[in-house]
Amino acid sequence: MSFWNKNKETENEQVSEPGVGKVKNIIAIASGKGGVGKSTVTTNLAMALSEQGHKVGVLDADIYGPSQPIMLGSHDGAQSNDGYAIPVKSNGVSFISMSTVAQQKGPTIMRAPIALKILNQFLTSVMWGELDYLLIDLPPGTGDIQLTLAQQAKLTGAIIVTTPQKVSVEISQRGLQMFQQLNIPIIGVIENMSGFTCSHCQEVTAIFKEGGAANMCQEFDVPFLGAIPLDPLIMMSSDEGRSLSEDKEGHAYQAYQKVAESFAHQLESSAANKMLEVE
Ligand code: ADP
Hints:
Layout: E1 23-30, H1 38-51, E2 56-60, H2 68-72, E3 79-81, E4 84-86, E5 88-90, E6 93-96, H3 98-101, H4 112-124, E7 131-137, H5 144-152, E8 157-162, H6 166-181, E9 186-191, E10 196-197, E11 204-205, H7 212-220, E12 224-227, H8 232-240, H9 251-278
Parallel strand pairs: 1-7, 1-8, 2-6, 2-7, 8-9, 9-12
Antiparallel strand pairs: 3-4, 5-6, 10-11
Helix pairs in contact: 1-9, 4-5
This protein binds adenosine-5'-diphosphate.
The site of adenosine-5'-diphosphate has 17 residues, from helix 1 and helix 8.
């Protein structure tokens, strides 16, 4: 099955072969519960990494509820080259999503085996080209899609996104344990919606408590990549498909820059450790 329009000619940069062969790092972004901001974190981490000079792609694996076209700010359809899809580029990030390849209105209604087939095509029949990072925005939970991708996507590692409160942390731990059981390294945990700063008095309120992700990192001995504040600007920029770099002084922009740096640093040091193990 192929979704993309074979007749459209592409004006985008040419990349020579389909698939992820030239992608240096494939990273799954996972959460236990929906609504904790996993897609938002994927988008903004991708934009922050791109701003720091890396080549970044996003594969939106949420077939039934794709959000990346809204959050990355492009509703263009993927063009094709010889029957292979060219990712859409927006805000410095190349991405592919269910709604870039099947531009229908209304819900996506399909059985799981078909969804899995489409995800396989997202990995094998998309011309990703040379990328430093391909971030995979997983749907929430530890079901068929998460398991299949974890096994098929040759993942470099996974990032777990959680909000600070117990109900999110405890469910995210199951995602973390799924990756550990599959021997996929945990690059780290990001705490989202971590504290709200009042714009009038600057007092910080821990609306969803604090420290949940840091405790989880301690318990499972995995790195803490940083905390992203609860900030209306993040919600608005996601809804409007805009980059946080429009307010470089803002807490949100700076928090993502820090998280992107510690993510890249973490990957570098785990790659270095691997090399040492081999030598
Ligand atoms: P998930 O992918 O976990 O289901 P989303 O990324 O779709 O969650 O986020 C759910 C909603 O929360 C979106 O409207 C998004 O804009 C908003 N949101 C996410 N993170 C933050 C944040 N740190 N501050 C404010 N709003 C946020």
